[in-house]
Amino acid sequence: MRKTFKHFSRYTVAGYFDLLLRLSSVCEGAIVIWDGSEEDDDFLAPQSWVGGIVPDDQAEVYGDHTVTYSLATAFNDLAKVTFGELLTMDVVVVSGGDIDLQNTELQFNGNSTLTSSGSVTLGYLKKGLGASVILTDFADWNITGDLVVGDKKKGEFTHGGDASVGVGGDLNIGSANKSGAVDSLYSISGGTLDVTFDVNIEGSSSLAQAGGNITIGQNLNIGDLASFSQTAGMLDVTGDVDVFKGTITTSGSVSVSGDVVLKQGGWTQSNGTVSVTGGLIMEVGGSYSLSGGRLATDVGITTQNVASFTWQSGGTLEAYSAGSTINVNGDLTASTGAVLDLNGAGEELIVTGTFTADGLIIDGYDLMFEDLRQLSSVAEGSDVLITAGVFGLNPDITFNFSGFDEVVNQTGASPYAAYTPSADEDVYWFQIVGGELSVHWHLQPIPEPDSSLLLALGSGALLLRRRR
Q1: The pairing of beta strand 147-149 with beta strand 171-173
Q2: Nearest to 344 by CA among 366, 327, 361
Q3: Where are the beta strands (DSSP E) in 284-378?
Q4: Pairing of strands 66-69, 92-95
Q5: Which of 83, 119, 279, 328 could cross-link 112 (Cys pair, CB 3.0–4.6 Å)?
């Protein structure tokens, strides 16, 4: 049983270390302190540790020296090793080559760091129980090569606090061809994960984000039964997102500079923002469900055969940039409560197939009638809101517009029919003609001031001058 001491002021640092060493000689799960006196800094050499006590199962490793070793399997078969702070001292682990972990759990706390000039693999053997790593506080891992979480056996990497992980190669989670690595997991709830090249998720394995920032220098690839789930945080992908028989669920912030391709896999967005510079492409069996949050894509949305884009209540489709169009190649249905955010002239939804509106809300549009009115003549004009190959029967659309300038909307039995206003009408209306849904207006001139009023104002000014 490990004892604890609350009153550190009774001991000098050296005396405290000596006390810990005395306790460690009789306690399982010793606290061991790195000395680094061995010339080759061998992790397993007694000379490298104060008192000659090498870490065993449940060891907690402390010290203010750099731990340098080249033995890739040094941590293997240690049930649990914790690297952390003691009296503000930190541990730095440096590996000159690859690190392969099996049958072990490593914890890096405080400001402890690991630097590897090679790759790091969790669960690299078929035998055993795999491996796990936990990073908290301000711990830092810097890996020159790849980080593999689950190779031949299951791997788990837990990333929290303000910890940071930098991967100079790929991040591979799980394996499609090695059953022992199924259900491998990389979870991040805080800090930063920066991957220079690709993130590949395979074999029922997952990348789970509950906070923090993830930056991927190239592509995010999600394979058979694998998943990326996000409840909070930021994901930034410089390249493409490719999902084949996998799933994505997001409610945080996602930015993709390339294309998103979904084939026999799907993406569900329940909140947050998704911004795609390229195209959102649903190939055979692919699907995207927009049930909350905001989605914007620059190139547009494409649905192929046996693919679907579902636009549900609470989901907002918006232009990628001010004044740009939203393009959909295929059919599109807006369910009750779906929102189309158009901010003004030039922003338009274009659908090449059939567009069905079953309770769509068009929001954010400023008509700016006050600026459109003229002094001496009627102002007439129109803006196209939606263009479709075919409109479904009985479109149900609510227009939450602003800038009406107190004019009255034209109503009637057929609200989307063409309308010809009389000369003295002050009116706007919506109509669907030739595959275009447009807003039209006919605005009376700005009233000129009454002549008698002008005369009275002039007389008043003259009277004031005389009194002065």
Answers
A1: parallel
A2: 366
A3: 287-290, 293-297, 300-303, 308-311, 315-318, 325-329, 332-334, 339-341, 348-366
A4: parallel
A5: 83
**Three-class secondary structure assignment of 93-149:** EEECCCEEECCEEEEECCCCEEEECCCEEECCCCCCCCEEEEECCCCEEEECCCEEE
- Gap between the Cα atoms of 368 and 360, Å rounded: 22
Q: Which of 331, 317, 397 is nearest to 360 (CA)?
A: 397
Query: Is the model's pLDDT at 19 over the cut of 60?
Result: no
Residue 181 backbone class (left: φ over 0; alpha: ψ -120 to 50; beta: rest): alpha
Distance (Å) of CA 318 to CA 80, 121, 234, 364, 446: 50, 42, 20, 10, 34
Whether residue 228 contacts residue 206, with contact meaning beta carbons closer than 8 Å, is answered with yes
How confident is the prediction for the chain on average, in pLDDT? Answer: 81
DSSP 8-state assignment for residue 392:
P
Write the DSSP symbol of residue 248: E
Burial of 277 (0-12, 13-18, 19+ CB in 10 A): middle
Helix, strand or coil, per DSSP, at residue 131: strand
Report pLDDT digits (tens) over 316-364: 999 998 889 999 999 999 999 999 999 888 899 999 999 999 999 999 8
pLDDT-based confidence at 55, cuts 50/70/90?
Answer: low
pLDDT digits (tens, 9 = 90+) for 156-189: 999 999 999 999 999 999 988 878 899 999 999 9
**Contact at 8 Å (CB) between 423 and 441?**
no
Grade residue 90 by pLDDT with cuts at 50, 70 and 90.
very low
Instruction: Give the span between the Cα atoms of 357 and 311, in whole angstroms.
Output: 10
Query: Under DSSP, is residue 175 helix (H, G, I), strand (E, B) or coil?
Result: coil
Q: What is the pTM of this model?
A: 0.81
What single-letter DSSP state applies at residue 207? E
SS3 161: coil
Residue type, 120: V
Per DSSP, 158 falls in state E
Residue 252 sits at φ, ψ, to 5 deg, of: -105, -140
The pair of three-digit structure tokens given for residue 139, joined into one six-digit string? 């711990």
pLDDT in tens, 454-463: 455 555 544 4
Residue 249: φ, ψ to 5°: -130, 130
φ, ψ (nearest 5 deg) of residue 35? -110, -40
